[in-house]
Amino acid sequence: MIRYLLDGRSLQDESSVRGIGTYLRGLLIGYASLGVSNDVGLLLERGPAPHAGLVAAGFATYPARLRPLNRHVRPVLDPLQIRRALAGRPPALYHAVEYGQPLRPSIPVVVTVHDLIPFVMPGEYPWMRRERALPMRQFRSADAVVAVSQSTADDLQRIAGVDPARISVIAEGVSPHRPRSDDETASLRARLRLPGRFVLAVGTFDPRKRIELLADVVRGLRRHHGVRLVIAGSQGNFAAAVASIVARAGLSEHVRLLGHVTDDELGGLYQMSECLLFTSAYEGFGLPPLEAMAAGAPVAVFDNSSLREVVADAALVVEDGNAALMVAEVSALLANPAERERRVAAGRERAAQFTWEKTAAATLRVYQRVLRQR
Fold first, then answer.
1. How far is CA 171 from CA 24, 81, 311, 335, 339, in A?
2. 201 forms bridges with which residues in the sheet?
3. Where in the numbering of this chain does the Glycosyl transferase family domain appear (predicted)?
């Protein structure tokens, strides 16, 4: 019998290679390590079969399946269709790992909130703000809300009006990347056609990721060091804009746009890079800096939202939006091998504090508290 039912749809679509998919996979890894796989199940939509590894690990799938919906209407229709799906054989508790809370549920509901981007930056994401207006109101009715950072918890109180007594701050985890031999590194470099020395950027450069600011930093770094830029991540609808900004900055010959890479390839990129440059204006958590530190790359971020909370003193944390200062600090790092190694060691130590088992154990305590209160 499924005791804790999680929304598993992020493992069936394009979200599987983004932050929400990483979060759900990590949570399941944590539950497996805690030995509670048999209590946990996944609510899926009709269509792709669940990954065989999930079944092998003991995770059941809920008998009812949800209707596949366009992403623009899903936040509006989810409350009704999830309520109907849970009416047959309800679990003890339902966990919405992004949005997707059922309407007027008969069982306790826990919801994870990763960020409130459309409401923090409404001018950049007006369509998402409209789509998610209903889920935003529903946050206040959840039995418990998991925020992945204190920054997100503060946003939930300030913007969504969620009672702080209902909020639990539970950080995400990070999976360690395997070390590579020299031959493996050379093979990956040749296959991805990587430049010799490069700084790395990771993600889809929608407006909040600030590709213009990244271009300014890279152009400044190239005045002092012969580094190029590698960008890993599918750019989707933003591909043309990213290419245009790179060209206007005069960097087309010095930027390698890789598109989507596998987790294993990303681990190699982190390990080979001179530094991860993270120019985002807002992050609910900020997993790439943590992944980079775990893999042994120094990291530079701008000081906003949750980023200092995640990287602490292990990374270069620069005044938000100050490209010249980031150039100066990263240049000094690249010119000082001993300081770079110190940052690498500090980053590994910081990242080791974030494990999926810790995330899963803390989330399980939220489930148990909610069930006791009912």
1. 13, 29, 12, 33, 28
2. 231
3. 196-350
Q: Write out the E strands in 129-242.
A: 144-147, 167-169, 198-202, 228-232
For the stretch 307-324, pLDDT in tens is 999 999 999 999 999 999
Higher pLDDT, 298 or 136: 298
Q: What is the pLDDT of residues 182-234, one digit of tens each?
A: 999 999 999 999 999 999 999 999 999 999 999 999 999 999 898 999 999 99
Q: How many CB atoms within 10 Å of residue 320?
A: 16
- Mean per-residue pLDDT, 41-50: 82
pLDDT at 56: 58
Return the SS3 of 66: strand
Those residues whose C-beta lies under 8 Å from the C-beta of residue 12, and which sit 6 or more positions away, are 44, 45, 47, 48, 50
Bridge partners of residue 228, in order along the sequence: 198
What are 166's two structure tokens?
Answer: 């209902």
Residue with tokens 């079969």: 49
Domains of the chain with bracketed CATH = 4-173+355-373 (3.40.50.2000), 182-351 (3.40.50.2000)
Phi, psi of 313 (to 5 degrees): -95, 5
Determine how many CB atoms are found less than 10 A away from the CB of residue 95: 26
310 Cβ contact partners less than 8 Å away, ≥ 6 residues apart: 149, 171, 283, 285, 286, 289, 290
Residues whose CB is less than 8 angstroms from the CB of residue 113 and which lie 6 or more positions away in sequence, other chains included? 139, 145, 146, 147, 148, 152, 156, 284
Asked if 240 and 283 touch (Cβ cutoff 8 Å), the reply is no
Task: Round to whole Å and give the CA distance between 322 and 329.
Answer: 11
Could you tell me the pLDDT band of residue 51, with boundaries at 50, 70 and 90? low
If pLDDT is split at 50, 70 and 90, which confidence band does 73 have? confident
Which residues is 96 bridged to in the sheet? 111
